[in-house]
Amino acid sequence: MSRKEDSYQLRKWSILARRNAKGICECCNTFVGFRNLNTHHANCYRYYPEERFLQSNAVCLCYKCHEGLHNIYKINWHYKTTRDDYERFKKIVNLHR
Ligand SMILES: [Zn+2]
Ligand SMILES: [Zn+2]
Question: How many domains does the chain have?
């Protein structure tokens, strides 16, 4: 897949996921609106290329949660994150509410 096609597919993937999320962060359940949602790959982008465009691998997060998720494990955006990391993070967030 070409880079251009790749980013086009990603945009489509993100838009559909955020539409389904109805502007609500799936982690902290805060309404932030369509434009402010980040679409996170539950199983990371780099190590799970076959899941790159799957809706089942999309998690819509507010900026705070998205940044927090990547920061909590002291990882950069390319680190191998998995769905388990997200589920664990979600538990932590909801414990401190
Ligand atoms: Zn959130
Ligand atoms: Zn992410």
Answer: 1
Give the pLDDT confidence of 26-53 residue by residue, as tens digits.
Answer: 999 999 999 999 999 999 888 899 999 9
CATH of the domain at 49: 1.10.30.50
Task: Return the pLDDT at 73.
Answer: 66
Which residues are within 5 Å of ligand 2 (an ion), measured at CB?
Answer: 40
What are the φ/ψ torsions at residue 2 (nearest 5 degrees)? -70, 160
Ligand closest to 75 (CA) is 2
Ligand nearest to the CA of 42: 2
**Does this model's pTM top 0.70?**
yes
Ligand found nearest the CA of 64? 1
Q: How far is the CA of 28 from the centre of ligand 1 (A)?
A: 4
* The CA-based dihedral angle spanning residues 26, 29, 34, 38, taken in that order and rounded to the nearest 10 degrees: -50
What value does the mean pLDDT of the chain take? 90
Distance 2 CA to ligand 2 centre (A): 22
Domain holding 87, by residue range, is: 3-95
